[in-house]
Amino acid sequence: MNKIMFKNLASFATNTGEKAKGGKSMGEITEIIDPIVLVHEGKIFYAGDKSILNEINEEEYKVIDGKGKTLLPGFVDPHTHLIFGGTREDEFSMRLRGETYMSIMEKGGGIKNTVRDTKKASLQDLTSLGIKRVKAMAENGVTTVEAKSGYGLDSETELKQLYAVKNINKENIIEVVSTFMGAHDIPDKYKGKNKEYLDFLLDELTPIILEENLAEFADIFTEKNVFSVDESRYYLKKSKEMGLNIKIHADEINDLGGASLAGELFATSADHLLKASNEGLLKMKESGVIPVLLPLTAFSLKEDYARGREMIDMGLAVALGTDFNPGSSFSYSMPLMLALGAINMGLSPEETLTAVTLNSAAALNRSHRIGTIEKGKDADLILIDAPSYEFLTYHFGINQVVLTMKKGKIIYRK
Length: 414
Description:
Elements: E1 3-7, E2 11-14, E3 30-33, E4 36-40, E5 43-48, E6 62-65, E7 70-73, E8 75-77, H1 89-96, H2 101-106, H3 111-120, H4 123-139, E9 142-148, H5 155-169, E10 175-183, H6 194-211, E11 217-220, H7 229-242, E12 245-250, H8 258-264, E13 269-272, H9 278-287, E14 290-293, H10 295-301, H11 308-313, E15 319-320, H12 334-345, H13 349-355, H14 358-362, E16 381-384, H15 391-394, E17 401-406, E18 409-413
Parallel strand pairs: 1-6, 2-7, 8-9, 9-10, 10-11, 11-12, 12-13, 13-14, 14-15
Antiparallel strand pairs: 1-4, 2-3, 4-5, 7-16, 16-17, 17-18
């Protein structure tokens, strides 16, 4: 049996349970000082005080000496656009000179530029780029990441993105969870024919995706000049009926009622939510929809941040993600994202930790097996060079991760 022991740790810190935590419970962290954590066959077998040492034979274990560092659950990034070709640094410069994200998009830039570059890239190109990116994410403490398609807007390229994710998962680095987001924008050939395009996605692509197990979720960009609330309702209801779980890019630039729609349809998550109304947020709470907030995107676009503090006080189970993509958030920096979530969204250190572990795992329907340090869960763990979890937000912007473990396998060591 493969057995691993973490000892000489300053502490470990974790929320607990198999479901997302909202309100006050989001800040209820268990911290054990000078603990022992045992891993058996890729699963957490024990996490607690040192009394267990009297009951086991230490020689049976591979010992990892924590040397006064802190052990945490592996980070879960619940919202990225991981698979794409090309970059858009020119658009970033345009925004710094006063253009807006939507004005660039309306001129034929934005997502459409990445669509063109992604179409040109081969499956091998996209797979290689993706592997490079997930390795960098592992260095930042990420053990599970969501990846959306949406830079194809046609059969061949959408499937190519999803096949790239499948190839990356064969490498056994971090787990990549696929979301089909063909409804990211409207291709030129379907301009003015939104429903016809959505029907194409539902009739032509979704059956293949389900048959080949290429995605778990469907997502749509509900926004002015993209897809309306009614169009989004139609698409997400059909996707759910066909067997996909659903997510929604909601109320990012305008409050169209995307949050309310997420609640109405019992979506797994609603993401962005910078402009979401209280009414919409309360509807999400009633339906158990997880708000996935993306502080790096607000930072990059110089927008007001989503109201994370208010959402938690309303009882919502907030999760945090990077939104890594080539346009509005070209970063997978967990340290910067965590700092912005705490400082600019008003989350406490404890809430920030829950938001990027247990709650973000729940946003991917995985909180029953990852997101906390508890017996029986996958040994997805990270070691940070700090005396406590509070240093995640206190020593902001600095990557403190020195070891990342996925299912008991060390995938990164500094």
